Amino acid sequence: MQVPARAVDASAVPLSLYAPAHSPAESGAGLHKVYLIIDDNPNPLCAVFGFGSQLQAFVQTQVRINAYTHVRLVAVYQDDSRFMRLQYVKAVGGCSAPPLTTQESGPLGQIRASLAALVLPDGARQLQLSLQHPNHNGLQMDPMTRLVPPPDYLRHLRLESQGQSLFNADLDFAISPPPSFILHLGQLAGNQLLVLADDSQGRQFRQALSLDA
Amino acid sequence: MRRRQLLTLAAAAMALSRGEAEPFTAAGADLSAYKPLQIAPRKSAQRWEFELDPALEKAAREGRHLYLVLSAWDCHFCARYERFLQINAARLAPQFERHHLLFVRLGSALEAQGDRVFLRAKGHSEAYADFQRRLGDERTGRMVYPVIWLLNAQLQLLNQLPYGTGTFETVPEQLEVIAPALHAPIRQAAS
Prior knowledge:
The complex is a heterodimer of chains A (213) and B (191). With 213 residues, chain A is an all-beta fold. Chain A is built from no helices and 13 strands. Chain B is α/β, with parallel strands linked by helices and 191 residues long. A five-stranded mixed sheet of chain B has the order 1-5-4-8-9. Chain B has a four-stranded mixed sheet with strand order 2-3-6-7. In chain B, α3 (76-87) packs across α4 (89-98) and α4 runs parallel beside α6. The longest helix of chain B is centred in the first third of the chain and has 16 residues, at 2-17.
């Protein structure tokens, strides 16, 4: 896990996490889920990630951190063995920071994906996935109007290829807006991806993407 | 202490009622121990412009770096930080001196958000985000009061500070963020 020791912007702390595909324990069991926990956030469970076989267990995103805290990555394997990494981060007020004024433009729910041309040493390529969404957590007061937009944030994100799940994320309000994820994608049988998402307001988003673009 | 604060607040209220700029610290904190250079903005409906040249020239003349504080008089977090500076002045002010820091306070108000704040230096006036980009400061996405910069007199960043001041409101952490100024070279202008 990589996260800065002192965050420049507590409302968008860059974080990347990686978990081995097989348990470091003797069993060598496959990876089941990866939990991202920010101890002193209003809701500590930030995200639960699941990875399909064509995706490495790697995620890069940005998170809100509300107070000096430990950030934990817990990898749970099929045999129920668990491994944890943690790092202490100095950041304050990320959950109540005012909404961004320079968000990307685009209709709500618009999903963008781009596949890097560069092939990583292990044969994977970086896939950047972002969704146009305010991701309000219900704690951010506009300093001028003193109004607090109600919670409206992404709850689930799912990535599929030819009916098979590649990536699954159960999310909470600690993901910074606009929600964006960098994944490491291996060889795919086709070049079509289906992205499915829903948010705390019950809206559902669905978009088919071609990786040729 | 309390009486002094009330007097400062009363003076601030009187100045505001006379339509003057925001010459006083947030919530009436007394920062005199830091010998601050106060800079008031030139205001119009569209822009609040802060002239940095007097501060840059003074810093160059005196062989000092700049601790630049953009603070809004009606901002809770500015008040909290300035109160922290006031309470710890006996420990921090000598350290600011030791680190060759010229304390410069840009007096603003919450109504002046990022798109209205302009900073003029060396003949160029730039909006907050453009100024930040030119400095190489990462804080371009939004402006969050208070904004603090640690700069040399040539307007170069000595340390990338975070948004807000929440991560350096203890004496050791305040010293940690100003530490690069202690060893940064100083180019003193000829007097």
